[in-house]
Amino acid sequence: MRSLLGSYVKVLSDTPGLGQLALNTIAVGPNTLRIYESLLRLFQEGEMERGRAAWAADLLLLYCTAIGAEHGNGLNPGHREGPLVPAIRGARQEDFPMIHASRDELLAGTGDERIRWCIDVMLNGVLMTARPTPSARDDARGSGAAKRTKRGR
Question: Where is this region: Disordered (predicted)?
């Protein structure tokens, strides 16, 4: 899964403008469907419940798309020459005591380490959090089966 998501981030990051386009567009083409298919297959192999897997795939792709968009302009905001480092390093203790005290930790780790950690955090959260049951409003947006059942048909 890390390999698949890492490849997706790399494609978005390495192609100028593609990450921004992906972030601002609802992708429905065959390549997007292949990525979803692969994620759902991996979740199925791990015996994850189908509804939870579907929402997890969406969450992970949204995160990876955001990272790809952030890095797709050729800038890594957390790189020592990126805009984030001087802002964090320059945060004055009297104005931003928490940032000042945490500045080394805020800038620690490589991009790959941070992405892997974030994916692990999301996966662990998905494994521990059940998907909510559909509400009547959600049922009404579906196929109409819930409406027919409620009316006794």
Answer: 131-153
In the block, tokens 């957390």 appear at 78
Q: How far apart are the first and last CA of the chain?
A: 44
CA dihedral 56, 57, 60, 65 (to 10 degrees): -150
Q: How far apart are CA 67 and CA 113, in angstroms?
A: 13
Write the pLDDT tens digit of every residue in 118-149.
999 999 999 999 899 877 566 556 554 444 33
Q: What is the spatial distance between Cα 45 and Cα 38, in angstroms, rounded to a whole number?
A: 11
Percent of the chain with pLDDT over 90: 46
Q: What is the pTM of this model?
A: 0.76
CATH number for the segment(s) 2-74+110-150: 1.10.357.10
The proportion of the chain whose per-residue pLDDT surpasses 70, expressed as a percent, equals 82
Q: What is the mean pLDDT of the chain?
A: 84
What DSSP designation does 49 have?
A: -
Per residue in 19-36, is it b (16+ CB within 10 Å) or e — as a string? bbebbeeeeeeeebeebe
d(CA 132, CA 117) in angstroms, rounded, equals 25
Domain assignments of the chain as residue spans, ordered by start:
2-74+110-150, 77-108
